[in-house]
Amino acid sequence: MADTYLYEFLYRGRPAGSSEPPAWHVVLGRHVTPPGSSEAQFVASGALTPAQAEAAGFPLTAVLAGIDAAALAGGDAAQAEAGAARRERDAAGSERDTLAAPLAALEPAAPAAVPPAGSGRAGFSGGGRRRAPPRRSRACRGGWPPPFRGGCGRRGRGVRGAR
Predict the structure, then answer these.
(1) How far apart are CA 66 and CA 73, in angstroms?
(2) What is the number of other CB atoms lying within 10 angstroms of the CB of residue 32?
(3) What are the tens digits of pLDDT across the range 106-115?
(4) 55 φψ region: left (φ > 0), alpha (ψ -120 to 50), beta (else)
(5) Dist CA 143 CA 130 (whole Å)
(6) How far apart are CA 145 and CA 122, in angstroms?
(7) Cβ–Cβ contacts within 10 Å for residue 26, how many?
(8) pLDDT (tens digit, 9 = 90+) per residue, 18-71?
(9) DSSP state, 29?
(10) Distance between CA atoms of residues 23 and 51, nearest Å
(11) Bridge-partner residues for 24, per DSSP?
(12) What is the pTM of this model?
């Protein structure tokens, strides 16, 4: 026979002002090897009431203490893993810095890009070829047929030619 352990714990709370007290139940588990079998099988008890759980050796205080211990152990393991990852990251960063220092000494510093004086927008020189304004349609130049309803140059507002 194997040791019995807490397999499931369910707490059922009640709303404030309810006449019923909060309820809970546990399911106990055990791995048992049946006669003539080489593999252990999982066997679960049904949902046990608080009185049945206490009679089986699982009072509420022991159940909550076991849950706290398991949760804290998981938190401690996560903190240790996070600390190891931070140390590994810091070691890789210091190695990168030691490898990059000789390269930085060999390469000349690149000049900083400075926008020319008087340019209204930082990072744009304002030079280069200017684009021509868009052409007007034949109707807007005074030809026949007259402009469509909605006026010239107002795309999407008229009846004809709207895209």
Answers:
(1) 11
(2) 11
(3) 777 666 666 5
(4) alpha
(5) 28
(6) 46
(7) 22
(8) 888 888 888 988 888 888 888 888 888 888 888 888 888 888 888 888 888 888
(9) E
(10) 12
(11) 11
(12) 0.43
